[in-house]
């Protein structure tokens, strides 16, 4: 029986068409739909007991699943796209994520043609398994501070990779702990006693015969991480080198080269391309944010429609908690954010592909913008998603705290995204640097392009005032864009003015960093809002689909406007009355979305297997499932628990004795 059938009947739009919008294309939808069902129906990919397993058992099970996934990919002759979807729906962090997600891209992006020809076929066939070994015990954010050394030995034409201190131990790389045979290792290049900065090197770590560490290599797992199950399926590792020798041609030499006679040569590409793998991965993390958030929102929305508290009249049913405005005010902006992040993720993928093509044609002009966009949007979307998953847990009340809700594990797996691939604050400071540079160049005749083109309208934006007179005026895209542009430009200019008061710009930057981060957030929010609005300019087929997306877009920007109204009011763009009208319009949009809420999460097309949540199951039959699951917990295997006779019974006896006294 479908306990959510009545909710589904209320939908005012074509869910099948919305599924296609969400997937990105009909083809992408069909691939995702087919592969997600294939995974869901295969008992080899079960994950319902994951949070109950001890680490060793959990990890072995992950190894089994990764091997099984590889076998299925081969047996079914899956394409690269289908294989990547299969790994996604298996939904278990594993060494393969870093192999495919960082090791292969690092070689592709930083290796010469010759190096790619040698290493990629081995990696594609998984005849070698790689990790990305950059972070150390002492340094993660400060890449220039890494201590591992790669010293060129002209006698033998080799590099000597060495960890000179405890803090230079590589620490965190996923897949390194127990599985990787190779790593792209980042180290300071030293030639003839002269330092040439951080470079990547392909280093073999373990024997391909018996998997033992090679001479000079000390390697292991760094230990349990946050949460049950969760990211503990991953073997994040520690690695030390004691003068390990590798051939010269294992330095990744696309950006710079070391010749046989020890000369250091720089190609005509910017040295920042050494950081290129991080740019690539940050872009994928933005797309992943919409997946993680939409998953949590599906659970919270379906459960909020099932759950009833208070409000029964004449013995009738109580109120569905989704009908409380407070619940809507917490839930619907997250639903809207999931869609917003999806569309900005699509745009960012386009931007990344564009910059990659330009780089191939030696056009480096858009690299700083690509870095700022990937860094800023990675930071914005992962922070909002991690907070959003936790909010969804609270939206599910007490039951959200059960592992069987799926939310604790989802949060534990997701929350390190705020740290890895660049700590979110550190990345926002990169955006702030980019903004300050842009503001300082405004008078120079250099026209700001792309996502900072609004800075070109600085004179207009600094003086303009909001013209909203009634709540519906907040539905006009041009009005909204101007509001977000005026706020972003005014915050950036205010920071730039304050910075100019310092004689030492670096000191000023450090002193004002909290304000700079806020200016960076305002800029990034403008990007997300503008890309959502751009999406709505496209032809979107399907009955009611565009109208629902317009409502969600409105909820996204009006919620931000309400939350940050202090910024908007402080920059004098808005009056308090106009801010209040924005809030009136926001409430009206909640009412519009309410009957469509369950259908809007159905449009994500997640299987019950992928959701891994009793509260979010498609049929809404929550209570019997919760009740049955409780009895399946290993603690209920016996009526009297192990340890009773040892620890509980003596206490009870002692109480009896005391009572007698
Ligand atoms: C903090 C960073 C970004 C910069 O540090 P800093 O020392 O201040 O700068 P540099 O001197 O190195 O460079 C200054 C210059 O370069 C520009 N820039 C920086 N990064 C990039 C880039 N990626 N692409 C293009 N340009 C870049 C910067 O804007 C400056 O330009 P100017 O014009 O102002 O000179 C950096 O050190 C950093 O990225 N830190 C974070 C480290 C990080 O992300 N590590 C990830 C490790 S892998 C991982 O976490 C894996 C996780 C698992 C998983 O994903 O599943
Ligand atoms: C689950 C997980 C997986 C990972 N996988 C990998 C991997 O595969 N390969 C790899 O190489 N690395 C990996 N990492 C490491 C990760 O990239 C780093 O942890 C990350 O880059 C942050 O660096 P850090 O740990 O040095 O943090 P720190 O820089 O020490 O941050 C600590 C605090 O200091 C603040 N801070 C630091 N610098 C500044 C500044 N300049 N201004 C203001 N505040 C500052 C930060 O905001 C933060 O609050 C992984 C990490 C995790 C958690």
Describe what is shown at a glance.
The chain is of the alpha+beta class and 661 residues long.
Q: How many helices?
A: 23
Small-molecule components bound: ligand LYYUSVKP, flavin-adenine dinucleotide
Fraction in beta strands = 5-15%
The CATH homology group name of the domain at 102-267? Butyryl-CoA Dehydrogenase, subunit A, domain 2
Helix content: 40-55%
Q: What is the CATH architecture term of the domain at 102-267?
A: Beta Barrel
Pick out the low-confidence regions: none
Task: Output mean pLDDT.
Answer: 96
Please tell me how large the radius of gyration is: 27 Å
Q: What's the CATH topology name of the domain at 102-267? A: Butyryl-CoA Dehydrogenase, subunit A, domain 2
**Secondary-structure class:** alpha+beta
CATH class of the domain at 102-267 reads: Mainly Beta
Q: What shape does the CA trace take?
A: globular
How many DSSP-defined strands? 11
Terminal CA distance reads: 59 Å
Q: Biggest sheet: strands, sense, closure?
A: 6 strands, mixed
Question: What topology does this entry show?
Answer:
Layout: H1 5-9, H2 15-23, H3 26-40, H4 55-75, H5 80-90, H6 95-110, H7 113-124, E1 130-133, E2 149-153, E3 158-162, E4 170-171, E5 182-191, E6 194-204, E7 217-221, E8 237-241, E9 244-247, E10 256-258, E11 264-266, H8 276-306, H9 325-360, H10 367-395, H11 407-414, H12 424-440, H13 458-463, H14 477-499, H15 505-511, H16 513-537, H17 545-563, H18 565-570, H19 576-593, H20 597-602, H21 608-611, H22 622-632, H23 644-660
Parallel strand pairs: 1-5, 2-5
Antiparallel strand pairs: 2-3, 3-9, 4-8, 5-6, 7-8, 10-11
Helix pairs in contact: 2-3, 3-5, 4-5, 6-7, 6-8, 8-9, 8-10, 9-10, 9-16, 9-17, 10-11, 10-12, 10-16, 12-14, 12-16, 14-16, 16-17, 17-19
Bound molecules: ligand LYYUSVKP and flavin-adenine dinucleotide.
